[in-house]
Specification:
Layout lengths: L1 E6 L2 H12 L5 H4 L6 E4 L3 E6 L1 H9 L5 E5 H7 L4 E5 L5 E7 L11 E5 L2 H10 L4 E5 L6 H4 L5 E6 L3 H5 L3 E9 L1 E5 L1 H6 L1 H12 L3
The structure holds 1-O-pyrophosphono-5-O-phosphono-alpha-D-ribofuranose (PRP).
EC number: 2.4.2.17
Pathway: Amino-acid biosynthesis; L-histidine biosynthesis; L-histidine from 5-phospho-alpha-D-ribose 1-diphosphate: step 1/9
Catalytic activity: 1-(5-phospho-beta-D-ribosyl)-ATP + diphosphate = 5-phospho-alpha-D-ribose 1-diphosphate + ATP
Length: 204
């Protein structure tokens, strides 16, 4: 049995669809209600978690694999072995703000974000010193309520930005869902893990 930490929400939904496409009965995941540990096909035990916690579980050796967005990997710099880009959960880091924002205006900008390290690195590359305000969600609010000059966030469909009248000023890295492994599990359960990788890739 492979223990797999799966990021709740969009990553989970698109991964469940991929697993169904590969012929697995995913009804336990679809009908999980509030349960957090779900067995699928007598082969996998999925542990539903927030993205940053997926990496914490891996680092602490309590799961074999993790399914998590590359946004979280970029932010956390965690020690884990990336096995596969699942190509699901595709989105992009962006710099966005209200229409009147001037990215070239001199002076120290205030940036709202769930990704302080990604944001810090982005502005450091541009030689700009910024003040970062760490947020936990609904990041788009920050420039609207006067908390920040702009945001560094991820966008998938672009709807949240559009419906809140925010404009994209720069596009940063692309993001997608990755399969990552705990290095010890990779040694101990090598065959089982690589069979799973082959299956996810669309092989036998
Ligand atoms: C993410 C992101 C944006 C939204 C963008 O937030 O931070 O707010 O998705 O998606 P869209 O381009 O498809 O509109 P998420 O939904 O994960 O929730 P959060 O704001 O609570 O972090």
């Amino acid at each position: 049995m492979l223990k797999i930490a799966l990021t709740k929400g969009r990553v989970e939904e698109q991964f469940t669809a991929l697993l169904a496409q590969r012929g697995f009965d995913t009804s336990p995941l679809e009908n999980k209600q509030r349960r957090l540990i779900i067995e699928v096909a007598d082969q996998f035990e999925f542990i539903l978690a927030k993205g940053p916690d997926v990496l914490t579980y891996l680092t602490n050796g309590v799961v074999d694999l993790g399914i998590v967005g590359s946004d979280i990997l970029m932010e956390q710099d965690a020690e884990s072995d990336e096995l596969l880009d699942l190509k699901t959960g595709q989105c992009q880091f962006i710099l966005a703000s209200t229409e009147d924002f001037d990215p070239d205006r001199p002076g120290r900008k205030v940036i709202g974000t769930k990704y302080p390290r990604v944001a810090q690195r982005y502005f450091a590359r541009r030689g700009q010193d910024v003040a970062i305000i760490k947020l936990e969600g609904s990041v788009e609010l920050a420039p609207l309520i006067g908390l920040a000059d702009a945001i560094i966030d991820i966008t998938e469909t672009g709807r949240t930005l559009k419906e809140n009248h925010l404009v994209i000023y720069d596009r940063l890295d692309q993001v997608s869902t990755r399969l990552v492994a705990n290095p010890l599990a990779l040694k101990q359960k090598r065959d089982e893990i690589y069979r799973f990788v082959t299956t996810l890739k669309g092989g036998n």
